[in-house]
Amino acid sequence: MMQAGVFQFHPQLSGWNLSSGTGPRSFRSPDIGFQPPFPGTPQIMLAISGIDSEHTTNLRVTLNLEDVEPEEFNIVVNTWDDTILYSLNVTWMAFDGLP
Which H or E run includes 7? Predict the structure, then answer.
């Protein structure tokens, strides 16, 4: 089984803290659910598919997965130094097993 989607990170999400400040910062997505749930813990691939950032600073971004379960998972966006992220689209693909 395979499922895919796009999660949009943006300032309207409660707690969004990547469009201001300096130093290490991270933002965790709300739970992203699978419909239907996987029979076991899936493997997930992430890719940045869109970004809006401040053009006067360097772009620094990493993505991490957290709490991957058969029913749901979370994506964590990290940045640091003076990078400002206004929005970020992350495309995800989940598999119940890779060949």
Answer: strand 2-9
